[in-house]
Amino acid sequence: MKTYKLYLLSLLSGLLLSFAWFPQGFVALVFIAFVPLLLIEQTVASNPEKYKSLLLFACSYLTFFIWNILVTWWVKNASFGGAAMAILCNALLMTLVFMLFHKTKKRVGGKYAALIFITFWLAWEYFHLNWHLSWPWLTLGNVFADTPSWIQWYEYTGVFGGSLWILTINCLLADIFIKREKSQKLKVRRGALALVLIIVPIILSLFVGFFANKFWKGEIDIVIVQPNIDPYYEKFNGNYDEQVIKMLQLASQKVNDQTEYLILPETALPENIWENKMEESSAIQLLRKFLQRFPNLKIVVGASTAKIYQYGEDLSSTARKFGGSEDHYDSYNTGLQIDSSNTIQIYHKSKLVPGVEKMPFPFIFKYLEDFAIDLGGTSGSLGKQDERTVFISPNSNYSTAPVICYESIYGEYVAEYINNGAQFISIITNDGWWGNTPGYKQHLKYGALRAIETRKWIARSANTGISCFINPLGEISQPTEWWQPAVISGKIQLSNEKTFYVHFGDYIAKAAVCLALLFYIYSLLFLFKILKK
């Protein structure tokens, strides 16, 4: 095969992956998207005298670069440098994983090629969820967020079930072209098997979704506010009290004596509130005054907060000094619950955005944290916490998970809130950094995956949109308009039940990590000639 044809195949794979992604994509394309790239790998592997591994590296990098730039280009609206790093580095990491598969397959032989590819890719996706440079936006199972009726079985598998589904179909179809010596009848059978494996999970999903309502009980009234405060020119520079008053004026249109929760967005209180003097904050006082009219109301709200360390108190790795002083403090992206009790419940966002809210690998780059991208409010490495705090009503009847922005794309992470007793999920976010691009739409739909995995209702408050309710089937209701002030109210149902996924988390990916390690160790036995083919 001519070299230019290999590059055309890599271009095709990149375009198929990109055009499968929502909001404009045709999701079924994902089932064939890796086929051209796998054909390139087989061509290079079977003709080592003609093609070098460097060619495969270039072709696979082209595929993954196209996929990354066409689906996540909108990051540039927040930071051009951040977008360049995310796109270029993410494509490079994906390429290295693909090359590792190629090298391992070359040592072991083609017998286990499909299994090696599937386990290596799943292991990579899991790794990318949990390390310092975590950016799991393109986890393959996320692609079905726009077609929730296909993946109701995510309550058993999470998104890695979707990734496994995609990779399996691609390997089956690629095998039809790779093993040319097989009979036509065998190829037809393999193609039919792939078709069945596409259709059966979709049919199964319809049955699973039909019986999912066993989780839903009771009803409570919730009001969600979308203040639409420009994050670049107003939110962190304008009058903070005026912003709170604007939100409460919107809330007043819908809140009544039956309303149990008022949900306000991420950093709705941006004034850097000191946690040891929280009641002195004018914003908190305004919210307290509002609560006097509605004593049963619970307000879940995002805030920028900070904590002063007392003398002798253990310092966190993110603690900072006050100028030339020896005193230390931590800054947080925080969720608060304010209610009729004297206690304000606090949760510190802990899945922080690399390069924006935390400096990756602080033991290496700690002294560069002042150069973190500043998107308003606090910058540099923020503090975080180990536990997933659940906000509980004063009468202990209700509980919610305060999920802040970026955290909503982490399935197992959100499941920890449910294991800690959350009956519904409050997503508070500020998606205005990206402008009117696919970014905020993708972020919204990823939240719908968490509803299916946990079978919990979601109340989503976004500063600039889209705010909405999401039911446990992943269906969105009352979506607000982008870049418009809005207030919506609705009834949601609560559940104390835990899905299979909530109990066992990302077990598919963890099993893949173990298998991938075994395959790699097995390949080393051939590399060091302990075993021979």
The DSSP helix count reads: 15
Strand-residue fraction? 15-25%
Distance between the termini: 27 Å
- The residue-averaged pLDDT reads 93
Query: Number of DSSP strands?
Result: 14
Approximately how much helix is present in the residues?
40-55%
CATH class type of the largest domain? Alpha Beta
Instruction: Please identify the structural class as seen in this structure.
Output: alpha/beta
CATH homologous superfamily classification of the largest domain: Carbon-nitrogen hydrolase
Radius of gyration: 25 Å
Give the topology string: H per helix, E per strand.
HHHHHHHHEHEEHEEEEHEEHEHEEEEHH
**Main β-sheet description:** 8 strands, mixed
* Secondary-structure arrangement, i.e. CATH architecture of the largest domain: 4-Layer Sandwich
The residue ranges in which pLDDT falls below 50 over 5 or more consecutive positions are 371-379
- Tell me the CATH topology of the largest domain: Nitrilase/N-carbamoyl-D-aminoacid amidohydrolase
